[in-house]
Amino acid sequence: MQPSRDVVLLLTHSGDYFTIDRVADALSKRGVKPFRLNTDQFPIAVQLQADIRNSQASHRLEYGDVSISTEQVQAVWMRRIWPAQLNQELAPQYQQACIRESLAALDGFWDSLKHARWVDNLQRINAAENKLRQLRVASEVGLVIPQTLVTNNPQQVKEFFTQVGGKMVTKLLTPLSYSMEGSSFFLYTSVVKEEDLADLATLRYCPMVFQEQIPKQQELRVVYVNGQVFVGALDATKYNAATVDWRKGTAETCVWLNHELPEEIIQRLHAFMGKFGLIFGAFDLIQTPSGEYVFLEVNPTGEWGMLERDLQLPISEAIADALVKSP
């Protein structure tokens, strides 16, 4: 007898809160069983078993006194996959090898969940995280993008700085923030000043993104869930003089407000998500003083808890609906 597929697997880490709890509650209300997997606790606190023999395969997770088989899983929410947090008693020379093997074992486990509905598919997430690909696709669907240079050549950076009239910002190609509150790993978008151009030697070790600095009236976090759009706006005039990145602003200056996007921008976001085949995405847009909307980037596993908390936007409900919806 086949087990009933009434489990939704929530992939996250042990430091996650609020968003994961809201989605779990929303799933429970829909009559399915949320199963939270803190990926950083594998392999220390989580046991995984893949038994493959004689053309038969069985995959099972054990977490404390609870266990599930992959046959029970109807859907997977890919919130976060976190490297293993290993005990200090393990010799340093073995740490990286154990982390690598643990991630490889999890990767094989994900393969056993191909029958499940993913929000979102890991391969599609990985493809969509490439910022250069994002900018190309955004331009293809009609979104306005900043002038952008990605390079490890200091001379090219200096020439670009001149071309954009000395109004330039820089950031990394990959996201390094993993929680609603940010983290010490996050490198914020930063303004490049002329004196910074004399200190570009380390660029040869790490290419970076350089963009024209777009004038801001509002900064928008637009959360897309299976065709629905939820928007929060920040009045950039309240903090723009102090910081170019709202995540470094204060609670007093960064107050989330409701905002309604023009229908033509919503349709372009639909087309963008369709190009990547994604169900979920957290967009960052700028609205300029003239009213133009400029695409900055999308995070396929981005943060949205502050919008649900401050604006009561039902994002967790929308994610739960997307997970339990029949493919």
From TrEMBL:
Asked whether the keyword Nucleotide-binding is assigned, the reply is yes
* InterPro entries reported for this sequence: ATP-grasp, ATP-grasp_RimK-type, ATP_grasp_MvdC, MvdD-like_ATPgrasp
Q: Using the record's annotation, list all stretches that form the ATP-grasp domain.
A: 135-324
Alphabetized, the UniProt keywords read:
ATP-binding, Nucleotide-binding
Q: Which SUPFAM superfamilies match?
A: Glutathione synthetase ATP-binding domain-like (SSF56059)
Q: Which domain of life is it from?
A: Bacteria
Tell whether ATP-binding is among the UniProt keywords: yes
Q: Which Pfam families match?
A: ATPgraspMvdD, RimK
Cited Gene3D superfamilies: ATP-grasp fold, B domain
What PANTHER family is this protein classified in?
Answer: BETA-CITRYLGLUTAMATE SYNTHASE B-RELATED, RIBOSOMAL PROTEIN S6 MODIFICATION PROTEIN
NCBIfam families, per database record:
ATPgraspMvdC (TIGR04185)
This protein's name: MvdC family ATP-grasp ribosomal peptide maturase
